[in-house]
Amino acid sequence: xxxxxxxxxxxxxxxxxxxxxxxxxxxxxxxxxxxxxxxxxxxxxxxxxxxxxxxxxxxxxxxxxxxxxxxxxxxxxxxxxxxxxxxxxxxxxxxxxxxxxxxxxxxxxxxxxxxxxxxxxxxxxxxxxxxxxxxxxxxxxxxxxxxxxxxxxxxxxxxxxxxxxxxxxxxxxxxxxxxxxxxxxxxxxxxxxxxxxxxxxxxxxxxxxxxxxxxxxxxxxxxxxxxxxxxxxxxxxxxxxxxxxxxxxxxxxxxxxxxxxxxxxxxxxxxxxxxxxxxxxxxxxxxxxxxxxxxxxxxxxxxxxxxxxxxxxxxxxxxxxxxxxxxxxxxxxxxxxxxxxxxxxxxxxxxxxxxxxxxxxxxxxxxxxxxxxxxxxxxxxxxxxxxxxxxxxxxxxxxxxxxxxxxxxxxxxxxxxxxxxxxxxxxxxxxxxxxxxxxxxxxxxxxxxxxxxxxxxxxxxxxxxxxxxxxxxxxxx
Amino acid sequence: xxxxxxxxxxxxxxxxxxxxxxxxxxxxxxxxxxxxxxxxxxxxxxxxxxxxxxxxxxxxxxxxxxxxxxxxxxxxxxxxxxxxxxxxxxxxxxxxxxxxxxxxxxxxxxxxxxxxxxxxxxxxxxxxxxxxxxxxxxxxxxxxxxxxxxxxxxxxxxxxxxxxxxxxxxxxxxxxxxxxxxxxxxxxxxxxxxxxxxxxxxxxxxxxxxxxxxxxxxxxxxxxxxxxxxxxxxxxxxxxxxxxxxxxxx
Amino acid sequence: xxxxxxxxxxxxxxxxxxxxxxxxxxxxxxxxxxxxxxxxxxxxxxxxxxxxxxxxxxxxxxxxxxxxxxxxxxxxxxxxxxxxxxxxxxxxxxxxxxxxxxxxxxxxxxxxxxxxxxxxxxxxxxxxxxxxxxxxxxxxxxxxxxxxxxxxxxxxxxxxxxxxxxxxxxxxxxxxxxxxxxxxxxxxxxxx
Lengths: 477, 250, 192
Hints:
The complex is a heterotrimer of chains A (477), B (250) and C (192). By secondary structure, chain A is α/β, with parallel strands linked by helices. Chain A has helices at 19-26, 30-52, 57-73, 75-88, 99-112, 124-129, 131-137, 147-154, 171-181, 191-208, 234-241, 261-272, 302-306, 322-326, 328-331, 344-354, 356-359, 371-375, 382-395, 401-413, 417-433, 436-442, 444-447, 460-469; strands spanning 92-96, 117-120, 141-144, 211-214, 218-220, 225-230, 244-250, 254-255, 280-284, 292-298.
């Protein structure tokens, strides 16, 4: 399998993302697409096996959905409750309206404590805020400790998936990176060997870190604590060893209390990887003596999404990645084709809210098959939201002139029977008279990989009409 | 009860034999079927492309045309879903039409009933792969989707089980999308075609001799790819099997 | 206006119509219960790559000794002589080969054990040690996570974790690798 060829890279500036073009480039290497598709489908299958063992799965989904909707409908109250409880526990609680403010707050905390070296566990929020680059520009050394994130960090790449950041890379490619940066044998690609090398490398980092930054899976309003879920224990290694722990969280991470927590914990890992639970489910309430604990609560566009009647339910997301794994389009176009912090179906309903002009093609990167909606543990109506974003994108004039004209012409033909009959006759005639190669060229994007149907002698309308005239039993009204 | 048949635009023009078969099946079952000329299109193509307002006249025309009937049977899962989802927004008449609109297979299964369908005495000695279009599957509940933890059911399979000689092939991915997706087929041709190729391969590897589908759009897409890639795997609509004309289909 | 006030105001203005808080307790009461708690726990723990050894409480010391053959530094949260003062730096457990502690409870549906700080004595030892051994009273195994949370008091200790098996990753081509980056093995001594 070749790893050469045009690589699909994410678009990092304001340039509108052309998902279709990026997806086409990704599909130039069909063997690689098959590899990527198979790997992600395997995750969907593991999820299915895990879910099959939970008889009450659909009840859990309904419960989780209602809990999140309830929480979002009273989010300000819960945030105040959370802050009060956390502060009483000795936690420093900070508020950040946007990415820039978040980064400044984190930087200030670190600067004030002369932190030069930070270890970080998985946090899509900090990815969204561009925290690493911000801190590195100011002279700090930041090490991502989740293995997948460390791999992409060493390669100066971005995560391509929210749960499996390096799922776009083969073990050979990872081996090359480790040979270059960790001194593993050139050409070595055994996952056990590579992981063992990463373990040694990262252990040094954990022991040397001045501060640890983690994400938050769930924030408990009732107790003021946060819950962090990992398989590698990297968040715990960071938190346990560094004197300063900063936990960054989006406002939507809140849930009311302890009784709600297990509803989500029972579904998170099963949805993400097919495990019954992550190896570590850590509950952090108070700093230990000699330690400092900070929570940074971040908006960065979330309250704007909350205000959108059609889209606020996207904030229910618990970042499991199940929609990404099941999406037949994601599996065959890769995470980078979305050029967004979060790719796939959930990314396609979050990103247009952040920058409609940049991400207007994402809602169209879908057949609206509904698989994402069916796997979502919190019952986000993903396919409905994708459909609604399409309307908004077209209303905002973000279609090509060609598409708009085509749609108008199409609508005309599809409301007039005479027009449709005419178009059909023309098409059938062309198919009969023109050579196949010419039809292929004329049929544009359809004809790239598909033939047109064999032209029938007459349309159903014509057949029905003649049957009626020859004494058929029924009218045409 | 009065029954009307709605034949979607592309079925009317490119796959008339599917509509003819659907009409025959209903008539063989003793139903009197009206085929009013008023509605050409349900409006879904415009809506799925993001131009809901452009699709409204078509949907209005559909609602007006079919308001007089007790049941409107649609030879397409996508169109039926579109009408059922969006016609209620037109008002009382739209709501009524939406409730009375059913996709062909669901009509046969839920309203006509399997016992009556069995009286068609259809025969087809083939190992078939059933392909239920996603909108019919997850949108209209034609079968239990593989993602859900619910008691399994499959209305389309139940219908086809009344056909003597029929055997079933099981693809490894029970209900993955074929990749048509309406405007997606031309907006994202690379992924669309790749999805179709993969679906075809899954059916071939499962030793399907024939694909039987609920949606002509899926059929058009998969058949187009099969022809281009010289993959020999015939495809028909459920109606053609029940009408006994699947053998002659390509 | 502070960021806090601005954010709370924005959220208050944006929030949708009130959705009632569902009655979780009533809903979960209807869920099917696991019958063979010990058997289900063992199966789930082993599925998470933990090793499960059954025995009697009276034989605990002998079981600990016989279940781990490696040398090196052993630290036990149950033994004041090895666990040392709480003023030790977390880094001081870097060379620990085996860490032993006792869980407050176990969860049959997923093979996880609840380890609050009071049982761990130190937060870092359980993730720095190369190998971890956890004692679990069989009578303290509950059915599912809902059951667990009705018993434990998550906010009582500064820190607490559910741990299910040794650390692991599948970030390299989905190949499962045990021992990244925390302990390489987890042994559960299920005691009667």
